[in-house]
Amino acid sequence: MMVCRIPVASGGENRKLDFDSRAWLSGLAYGLGAPGLPQRRGSIRHPRWPQVSIGGGGGRLTDQVRNRLSTFAARFRWNWIGFALSAAIVAVSLYVLAHILKDIDIARVAAHVRAMPAANVARAVLFIGGAYLTLTCYDLFALRTIGADHVPYRIAALASFTSYAIGHNIGATAFSGGAIRYRIYSQFGLGVIDTAKICFLTGLTFWLGNVAVLGSGMVYRPEAPARILDLPPGVVRMVGIAALVLLVTYVTWASLRPRAIGMKDWRVGLPGGLSTLVQIGIAVADLGCSSLAIWSLMWSVMPDAGGGDYFTVAVAFVAATLLGFASHAPGSLGVFDAAMLVGLPQIGKEELVAALLVFRVLYFMIPFGVALVTMAIWEVVLAISRRKSKC
What we know:
The chain has 391 residues and is mainly alpha-helical. The protein has one domain (104-390). It has helices spanning 21-31, 60-100, 106-115, 118-145, 153-170, 173-185, 192-220, 223-229, 233-256, 273-301, 310-327, 335-343, 349-390, and strands at 3-10, 13-20, 41-44, 52-55, 259-263, 266-270.
């Protein structure tokens, strides 16, 4: 044991105080939650300092430190799990994709792309335009739900289109899309919390629609999702029934009285029953337009087979979209394609790959370029406006 003599001012006199340094360090370590050390009670105090308790019931400072450390550890653990899950989805998808495409005839794929009728491609462009149009309703609905009625539709459309078109292509849509939304909505007086609420509500719309479509598809046509998930069709059908029951339960719960979720510093009011049905309708329209686009492209390369049954294609499309979203891969690259190839084995590989390539150009690449140009123009307009306001 080491004993230190510490001068302490008391009543105008200097006196010596024996201080057990090892005991103090043990008490400090115990207060921070170090295992295997005995409990020490006491405090360190100076006449001009606030008292800080150490050990003995967990002083305020050490409790805050311990709580912050445990919160950080929990978040880090969940982030690591999410990252590992995303990496596993990407790795498995790339392996499956490489296995499926190992004997593909690239010349036939190119020939199918060149042979696509212009009318079918134009129809796919029309459906993709409809999908992006419904995406603007995601943001408009969220803005009206949080009471931001002063933000006009054109701004909601701008934020929605650019955030989705850019976020879909660079990955981690929740973060990249949120940053773009904040950049736009902050010009209309909305803060970080408001933007977070908008992102939450748009995500809720997305998931409600996906549960409705995929749940129905699992019940009615479980074969495609069963192949993607590598589960028996009977199990997939039961999962679909459970998803639909959960959806109906949520709509009923939201209908009974006004609901809100969140913490004391961040709460967002949930849409009521009728508004929730509107949410589901918006997302179903979005998924319907997108799946019709890729079905039109499949029809153009397989006219005799009718491009496959539409409902089966739509269910496979939604399941593949969800897997791509969960992977956070840029443009769901590899994940979406592998899921579509696994879920639709009745369509020839070359034909399906040709349809997927054209779909990627129309749905991902062209909107991505347009969104980048649009954001550049937006920034130039903002800079000119600021310069004029200073003059």
